[in-house]
Design a protein that fits this description.
Blueprint lengths: L10 E4 L5 H12 L3 E6 L13 H10 L3 E6 L5 H14 L5 E4 L14 H29 L2 E6 L17 H20 L5 E7 L6 H5 L15 H10 L12 E3 H7 L10
Helix pairs in contact: 1-2, 1-7, 3-4, 4-5, 7-8
Length: 268
């Protein structure tokens, strides 16, 4: 942990940070001196069938000399979103960096898709990032600085007409909407020196990806992206001049190549 690092003095919120990509981003930001609010639904180990919890991530950061704080938040609930920002302000002050990483996903063909699952996915993956951004923007505009990073997926790209699929149409819709929201907001707040970008990770072997069988034993190893590549790319999106780093629809691999980044070891 470098408390005088690239993000020294910055306050960051990372949603969906109990495991996987969100955990990696939270750790990487803390390594560069950010005060990180680690948020997700899973408070303690055992609260979810998958391993990981926000308390364990916070302990990992704090025990290594960083500064992190856990706030349980179900992004499907407006009051939870409002409380996340309020608790962050109470603990650390105004939000400098918001990472909208959390997602809830059902892979079901359109003909069988249930409305309650459709509504939940749009609430968590599209409206929650919109609402959290609204809650953070007044302070960012006042201080004339801020960063918002939205986590997308290659699923946002239009599939080939004969590609078949695993029921990912609604997931792709959500990510496509998130990307259009990103570029629109980036244009709106450009003159306020707020950088807004969206990034896709590639195929990362997170617990959720493995659970949905998006990676199997037959998946070629060269197709799997290390989570450290994503966390390093997301770090590069939140420092430097905001006006020269905004409105990007990018990918972890492209960021590493464009800026010649060497992913840091996240062991701590």
């Amino acid at each position: 942990m470098n408390n005088e690092g690239l993000l020294a003095g910055k306050v960051a919120i990372v949603t969906g940070a109990s495991r996987g990509i969100g955990e990696a981003i939270a750790i990487r930001y803390a390594m560069e001196g950010a005060k990180v609010v680690v948020s997700a639904r899973t408070l303690d180990e055992g609260d979810h069938p998958l391993g990981g919890s926000i308390n364990s991530v916070v302990s990992r950061i704090n025990n290594a000399g960083g500064d992190a704080y856990a706030v349980r938040c179900d992004l499907a609930i407006a009051e939870h979103r409002e409380n996340l920002i309020a608790e962050t302000k109470s603990k650390y002050g105004s939000v400098d960096i918001l990472v909208n990483n959390a997602a809830v996903t059902y892979f079901v063909p359109v003909k069988d898709f249930r409305k309650k699952h459709y509504d939940l996915m749009l609430e968590v993956q599209v409206y929650a990032p919109f609402h959290l951004s609204q809650l953070c923007l007044p302070a960012m505009i006042e201080q004339q600085s801020g960063r918002i990073v939205n986590i997308s997926s290659h699923a946002a790209l239009h599939p080939e007409k004969d590609a078949g699929g695993r029921g990912g149409t609604v997931y792709g819709m959500c990510k496509a909407a998130l990307e259009r929201f990103t570029t629109g907001l980036a244009a709106e707040v450009y003159n306020d020196h707020i950088g807004v970008n969206v990034i896709s990770p590639g195929l990362v072997a997170t617990p959720g990806v493995v659970h949905h069988k998006l990676i199997t034993q037959d998946t070629p190893r060269e197709r799997v992206t290390p989570v450290e590549h994503m966390s390093e790319a997301c770090l590069r999106l939140v420092h430097g001049d905001a006006q020269s780093m905004t409105g990007k629809i990018t990918y972890a691999s492209d960021m590493l190549k464009e800026f010649d980044l060497s992913p840091a070891d996240l062991a701590c």
